[in-house]
Target: ABC-2 type transport system ATP-binding protein
Amino acid sequence: MDEPIVVAEGLHKRFGDVHALRGLDLAISAGKVCGLLGPNGAGKTTAVRILATLADPDAGRARVAGHDVVREADRVRALIGLAGQYAAVDEKLTGRENLRMFGRLHHLSRARARRRADELLERFGLAEAADRVAGTYSGGMRRRLDLMASLLVAPRVLFLDEPTTGLDPRSRGEIWDAVRRLADDGTTVLLTTQYLDEADRLADDIVVIDHGRVIGQGTPDELKATLGNRVDVLLEEPGSSAVAADVLAAMTGTAPHAPSPGRLTSPAPASLRLADVVRELDRADVAVTDVTLRRPSLDEVFLHLTDGTAHDPPAAPDTSAGQDVPADPNGAVRQAVPAGRGVGAGQGGRVGGTARDDEGEVA
Ligand SMILES: Nc1ncnc2c1ncn2[C@@H]1O[C@H](COP(=O)(O)OP(=O)(O)O)[C@@H](O)[C@H]1O
Ligand SMILES: [Mg+2]
Model:
């Protein structure tokens, strides 16, 4: 097989006392969407900046399409596009003018810049707003315009650094569509995100990083499979908890944990069948409102990876998302995304518990 189009080996980067990257390894196959997932401060932007030739590593090396990002930075730059959390859009120009300007900056001819701008505006659904000044655009529209600017010269590898952080759910959906369309065209995408649901939806492969190193990786399915299934039971009578717990323990080999009265949850061996759980509980005269056999959410995987402890959540207040939500049949993670603009606190599906220390959206 060909060498992956993006390769990082043992990247280290320090800023004074802060060790932002501690030996980061990464490999992305051509045409794939790789989700670099991690909480705020994990080292995502530092990694992207090094891969995009904007910063040099202190140690380690990286290649894009076989070119070293330090020694052959010019070659690399010609192959990549970069769009970030802070859209670099001129507010006084219209969307169309912005794109033409970026096209000229990329040394496209005037005619070619015009044509590319029109194509992209059409393709990413901004044609109607193309002649309005960008200062009137919503955060999502600016982000899309910024994304289009990075696509003017059809990069082979596109780096998207938190493209949806701070956007409302609808704008996030629009960016997701745009990324999917690019992936369908065969563009390799490295997307950083703090959102588990975003990585789950967009990425072929996920690399979870924290404190500058990789703590887990695989396809979303593989990551979830590392934790195995879970069985959740909601009892009609909380008083039957003890009996139900015995039944479940006998079936799963693990004492279940009770996130709230009348609710039991337990890791489930792959062989466990839902019908058997229902039958055994019935045989023990335990009345149930709901029994669910589900795959863990990426949230649970992340919690597991970051604290490195047992599969079972802690016994006291359970904060893991998805615990109260029956699984999607296809195992997709459901995340609560609050309505309205998602700037600031309470954005759904964010990994880790850390608050952002930077602004969600460019004003
Ligand atoms: N230019 C810089 N100067 C000092 N510290 C920095 C700089 N850039 C990043 N850091 C620190 O390095 C760590 C990783 O940052 P970053 O790569 O931006 O993480 P992420 O993008 O995952 O939020 C953080 O602790 C951050 O504060
Ligand atoms: Mg960042």
The CA atoms of residues 83 and 160 lie 5 Å apart. Confidence is low (pLDDT under 50) at residues 308-363. The two ends are 45 Å apart (CA to CA). The longest strand covers residues 18-28.
